[in-house]
Amino acid sequence: MIILVVNAGSSSLKYQLIDMSDESVIAKGNCDRIGIDGHINHKTADGRVLDEDCPFPTHTEAFMKLVECLTSGDAKVIDSMDAISAVGHRIVQGADVFDKSVLVTDEVIDKIDELRELAPVHNHAHALALRACKSVIPANVPQVVVFDTAFHQTMPPKAYMFGLPYDDYEKLHVRKYGFHGTSHRFVSKALAEAMGKDVKDLKIVSCHLGNGSSITAVDGGKSVDTSMGFTPLDGVVMGTRTGSVDPSAVTFVADKHGFTPSQMSEYMNKKSGFLGVSGVGSDNRDIQEAANNGNDKAQLVSDMLAYEIQKYIGAYAAAMNGLDAVLFTGGIGENSWEVREQVCQNMDFFGIKIDEALNRTIRGKLTKISTPDSKVEVWIVPTNEELLIARDTLELISK
Ligand code: AMP
Predict the structure, then answer these.
(1) Using one digit for the tens of pLDDT, what is the confidence trace for 207-231?
(2) Which one of 184, 207, 208, 211 would you pick to mutate in the ligand 1 pocket, going by the greatest count of ligand atoms within 8 A of its CB?
(3) Which of 115, 147, 179 is a domain's end point?
(4) Does 94 contact ligand 1 (Cβ within 6 A)?
(5) C-alpha to C-alpha distance for 297 and 304, rounded to whole angstroms
(6) Which pTM was predicted?
């Protein structure tokens, strides 16, 4: 059984074709610059590549090109779209409307579009892509949507409410939603399997550290709290995002710079974080290199990140009344031994002790990096959101 996984943004459309018999990737690619001009990069598992400019006025043309690449030409992998059993789509914001993956209907697409106010960059693009996909992919191929927020719908009200007037929650739907749920769900389950335990018996702090980062408390397989909030701006300091800031500092800075709310949002989302504090850049590799070469501000932002993560681990151990394992995932979590080492230093109060020599040698591989006498196990768990989307899709269409 073959499943197409789609991750659509406002001007891009990433995809993977996955063979569910062994969960291998048959082909993957990216259509980008949709609405600008258009470009596709398509790669097959056996190394064939197609990389060319082509006009993508809308997502529909991008889907048509994707179908063409999969079914014809030098990088073809299937004879026709009839070989595909279903399509799974990643959706950023499902709010409190969707607490699990669902089959796509016209009503589901409309609802995703209606939620656009809560995720202006993403949800409308998802709706456009879903409609485009329906117009291009044969009608008998079912489609499924998988939400980044769904895993966090198990958070109790005391974790997701803000101290704003209750009306803002009821009428404006302002609350913590949390993001990266697909990743946190995938890695917490993979960790339980690696530990040989049932996820229901584990209290895990899952650290998804990448360009965007979030930390989640997973108690018994359920998200009970998470660091991102109403939007993916909240929580720890990120590549170009501030993370949590005293709201009064936000209004003060906006006032001093004469920013409108949307300019201030842009400032906090695009010009802050690693980039804004260090002046070096938004990429963790550049930050670590600059810090190693004696750049004080790069060192500072690296220290801030590690310190903030440590505080989340402490807070979530308290929230769950226990801690069995901490896991690292995402581009930084899987690859940066420096960040993992810094986070795990001076955490002996919690019973966290890692094998520093081992940690320094591991990159992107499922590995336990804690010492045998560490009370809390520490693991690197590579994430695979596309695979989880494909698995959810398969499960739903099999029902
Ligand atoms: P993601 O958003 O999950 O793709 O992660 C992107 C982040 O991972 C960037 O900040 C990269 O610098 C970081 N990253 C990727 N590879 C490495 C590496 N080998 N060492 C350190 N950081 C890395």
Answers:
(1) 999 999 999 999 999 999 999 999 9
(2) 211
(3) 147
(4) no
(5) 10
(6) 0.95
